[in-house]
Amino acid sequence: MKVLAINSGSSSLKFKIVEFDETAGGGAGRQANVRFDGSIENIGSAARLLFRRSGTTIFENRCAVATHAEAVRSMMQMLEESSREEGRALGIEAIGHRVVHGGEQFQSPVRIGEDVFAEIERLAELAPLHNPGCIAGIKGARAVMGSDIPMVAVFDTGFHRTIPPQAATYAIDLDLARKHGIHRYGFHGIAHSSLAGICAAAANRPLASLRLVTVHLGNGCSATAIDRGRSVDTSMGFTPLEGLVMGTRSGDLDPALVGHLMRHEGLTVDEVERFFNERSGLLGLSGLSNDMRDLLAEEAKGDARAGLAIAVFCYRVRKYIGSYLAVLGGADALVFGGGIGERSAIIRARICDGMAWCGLRLDPLRNVAAVNLASGDAMKISEDGAPLACYVAGVDEEVEIARATRECILNRPSSE
Ligand code: ADP
Question: CA 360 to CA 413: how far, in whole Å?
Fold first, then answer.
């Protein structure tokens, strides 16, 4: 089956055409070949377009792309031209879309019909910063490709549906919580599921035999405890604000800070929310940047606030790893992914520093060597024989979306 996976954010769209080998024995269709991939970033102004065929860049430029619909149109144009040059039909059989928030109703991937689309639009209220980009991607694809081609929504919250009540429930009035659907949903599920699958393949062990702690460190950051393929706890909660320190998000806080800031800074509720989402985290702590590369450079020049930001960031990750080891009763591997997790050996080393107590011993040379992984690849960075192995994995959300889309179509061909 040929699946177009679309991963659409507020101002970007990433895509892959993934071809599954349906003749492969055993896990038929698990063998995925990426024929085309690319991204359109900075939608709304001078967008950056990147288009690759079998991993080789064939187009990279800045173009005017004002909306997500135009982005889908540009993507389709590039795909069609390239497949014509190859003399092969594009032949897309299904389209998978990443959707950040599936609310309580969508626990697993679902075919997008009118009802489902309306419900996803309604859920934008729960994820105002995240769902609108996904919706724009779906609308754009429908406008350009029509509604005959099956489309599937794959939810970031879906992977976390297995989190047990003691981990998902906030200790507030239960009736009120139920009335408003308040519990820990968890996010980045597609990324964590991808990291777990890539790690299991690299370790040559069935996922169903592994206890893993996956740490996804990008602009948004989260950690997940995965017990034999099932998410049992994760750091993001009702919204993607909870948990680790992120580029501009605070992560965990004392909830009393909301009232305190409103009273003492004269802020409204919306302003406090924006403050925690947009002006906190690495940016707020350092007063300089939300980019870890900048902070490492400034710390090296002696900037104390950059140093503190990095220290708070690493400490919080280590604290979550420790708590998830307690949740899982020990783990087989720790897996790093995301822009920071994949590329920064120094941050990985700082996070893992002093964790020999649980058998986590990094191999410094392997750690430094693991900085430029292709998506879908993994490298072990712990010492051979260390009781808790550590891997760096190149997260591949689009292949994960394509896999889930294929399974949804094959298992539930007419779920609408
Ligand atoms: P997103 O969460 O938006 O998908 P990424 O996973 O690409 O983002 O991560 C982006 C972040 O990765 C950047 O903000 C930057 O802080 C960090 N990053 C990228 N390369 C490096 C590097 N070599 N060293 C440290 N941090 C890096």
Answer: 45
pLDDT band at 332 (very low <50, low <70, confident <90, very high): very high
Which tens digits make up the pLDDT trace of 306-325? Answer: 999 999 999 999 999 999 99
* Domain identity same for 216 and 340: yes
With 90 as the cut, is the pLDDT of residue 132 above it?
no
Distance separating alpha carbons of residues 409 and 110, to the nearest angstrom:
9
* Nearest residue to 126 (alpha-carbon basis) of 188, 193, 184: 184
Number of domains in the chain: 2
pTM surpassing 0.85? yes
Task: Point out the ligand 1 atom lying closest to the alpha carbon of residue 219.
Answer: 2
DSSP assignment string, 215-265: EEESSSEEEEEEETTEEEEES--SSTTSSS--SS---S--THHHHHHHHHH
The residue whose C-alpha atom lies closest to atom 13 belonging to ligand 1 is: 291
Ligand 1 centre distance from Cα of residue 128 (Å): 23
Residues 210 and 150 in one domain: no
- Position 29 scores a pLDDT of 44
Residues 126, 37: contact at Cβ < 8 Å?
no
Which residues make Cβ contacts (< 8 Å) with residue 157, sequence separation at least 6? 100, 101, 102, 103, 106, 185, 186, 187, 189
